[in-house]
From TrEMBL:
GO molecular function, one term: DNA-binding transcription factor activity
Family designation: Belongs to the ROK (NagC/XylR) family.
Pfam families: MarR_2, ROK
Protein name, per record: ROK family transcriptional regulator
Gene3D superfamilies, sorted: 3.30.420.40, Winged helix-like DNA-binding domain superfamily/Winged helix DNA-binding domain
HTH marR-type domain mapped to chain residues: 6-48
Domain of life assignment: Bacteria
InterPro entries the record matches: ArsR-like_HTH, ATPase_NBD, HTH_MarR-typ, ROK, WH-like_DNA-bd_sf, WH_DNA-bd_sf
Species in which this protein is naturally found: Streptomyces montanisoli
CDD domains given in the database record: ASKHA_ATPase_ROK, HTH_ARSR
Length: 378
């Protein structure tokens, strides 16, 4: 427990002296010294210079050894796969983008190779190989059904529906693999470093080519029996065509009806005659219509979940910005009794990749920082 506490402090604060680690953990100087010697021998920490400018000998600074483990994070979309490789400290050391129309049209057997291509490119940029990879987390539309192992709610990625997909990915990457819903990962990113920091009950509403939500209650993602919690794109709304036929009727855009047909990027652009999102939402009429539609859908979720916070993310939210947020907030006041805070995502970069990286780092640290696996008697 002391080892893990010290390692977590080094992750959170960066390099620290033995004295400072002792102060933060409450350990005596001899115990802190023994702890650091043990972690250094295990290859988990290393010295990184000394602190000068104070009385007495210069104190050594200790940091997490970045080579202790590496992880991969991937985001899968209809046009390609983005991959990042990071060391155990969270520093991104390699990245790769596989632009592939075949991602959407893929046949079984090719999917794993596309993922491997993206990861291999990121590893190569970092000067690493598969043996250096501890685990990988992949964000995709839809969700893995725990009962069948099959990806559901993402018919526009047909090559990802094989029941052997996870095993195939593990084989080509040579490391454990987790497949997670992309919107859930965006919500994790907000929890770690975005608008949802310090909130345990919140909803992230994803407004992009696809529409979905991630629901976090008590700090834990709500997944549902088949992984379909938060698939609000299918939700019926007044004035919207019904998404009959479920996922079989969905084309990954706004074709299936429901909430998605009202507030997706394609739907918003259609309201403005095909104009780009920024131009579309600069039009007061389009902005008002989108805000009304969006507030109606969010009100249905808020009435059931009663979150402290709703975060708007995705290209529609970014294009609409504060003007859209303010309009939606005003509309919500007359539609739902709960009054959650409403914020626009402020994550830099791709929130799906950020969430995948955070998830992979958590998994890796739980394993690598477990010093009970070492024989400390030697």
């Amino acid at each position: 427990m002391n080892d893990r506490a010290a390692l977590d402090l080094l992750v959170a604060h960066g390099p620290l002296t033995r004295t400072r680690i002792g102060e933060l953990t409450g350990l005596s100087k001899p115990t802190a010294s023994q702890l650091l010697a043990r972690l250094e021998a295990a290859g988990l920490v290393r010295t990184t210079g000394r602190v000068s400018g104070r009385p007495g000998p210069n104190a050594a600074l200790y940091e997490i050894h970045p080579q202790a483990a590496h992880v991969a994070a991937l985001a899968v979309g209809h046009t390609g796969i983005s991959a990042q490789v990071a060391d155990i400290t969270g520093a991104v050391v390699g990245s790769c983008r596989v632009e592939a129309d075949a991602v959407a049209e893929d046949v079984r057997g090719r999917t794993a190779q596309l993922v491997a291509e993206a990861v291999d490119g990121a590893l190569a940029e970092a000067g690493l190989g598969h043996d250096d990879l501890h685990c990988a987390v992949i964000g995709t539309p839809g969700a893995i059904d725990r009962a069948t192992g099959e990806l559901r709610y993402a018919p526009h990625l047909p090559g990802w529906h094989s029941r052997t997909l996870l095993a195939d990915l593990v084989e080509v990457l040579g490391a454990p693999v987790v497949i997670e819903n992309d919107v859930n990962l965006a919500a994790i990113a907000e929890q770690y470093e975005g608008a949802a920091q310090d909130y345990d009950d919140y909803v992230l509403t994803w407004l992009d080519r696809g529409v979905g939500a991630a629901i976090v209650l008590g700090g834990t993602l709500l997944r549902g029996a088949t992984g379909g919690a938060g698939e609000i794109g299918y939700m019926p709304l007044p004035g919207a065509p019904l998404a009959r036929g479920g996922s079989a009727a969905w084309a990954g855009d706004d074709a299936g009806g429901g909430f998605q047909s009202q507030v997706s990027a394609t739907a918003v652009r259609a309201l403005a005659g095909g104009a780009p999102l920024g131009e579309a939402l600069a039009d007061e009429g389009v902005l008002a219509a989108v805000a009304e539609r969006l507030a109606t859908g969010i009100a249905a979720v808020v009435a059931v979940v009663d979150p402290e916070l709703v975060v708007l993310s995705g290209s529609v939210a970014q294009a609409g910005g504060e003007a859209l947020r303010a309009r939606v907030h005003a509309e919500l006041s007359g539609l739902a009794l709960p009054r959650p805070l409403l914020r626009i995502s402020d994550i830099d970069g791709d929130p799906i990749l950020t969430g995948a990286l955070r998830t992979a780092l958590t998994q890796a640290r739980d394993a690598v920082f477990d010093t009970s696996r070492f024989d400390t008697a030697k």
